[in-house]
């Protein structure tokens, strides 16, 4: 299992609520959904190496 970096993240409560509902729609936790969204954005921006996809 790969190690993951932990760090605090401060979000606007309204944004968190949106993310919470969106994550639930996709059967993910908020944490995993945020990671999914960031990974997808990095991939689309060409910043994610093929080995990291």
From TrEMBL:
Segments forming domain Arc-like DNA binding: 1-49
A biological-process GO annotation: regulation of DNA-templated transcription
Domain of life of the native organism: Bacteria
Keyword DNA-binding part of the UniProt annotation: yes
Entry GO MF terms: DNA binding
Keyword terms: DNA-binding
Keyword DNA-binding: yes
Stretches assigned to coiled coil: none
A Pfam match: Arc
InterPro entries named in the record: Arc_DNA-bd_dom, Arc_rbn_hlx_hlx, Ribbon_hlx_hlx
Protein name as annotated: Arc family DNA-binding protein
Organism expressing this protein natively: Cytobacillus praedii
Phylogenetic lineage: Bacteria, Bacillati, Bacillota, Bacilli, Bacillales
């Amino acid at each position: 299992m790969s190690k993951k970096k932990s760090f605090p993240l401060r979000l606007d409560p309204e944004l968190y609520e949106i993310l919470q509902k969106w994550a639930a729609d996709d059967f993910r936790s908020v944490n995993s959904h945020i990671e999914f969204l960031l990974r997808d954005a990095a991939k689309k921006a060409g910043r994610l190496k093929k080995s990291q996809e």
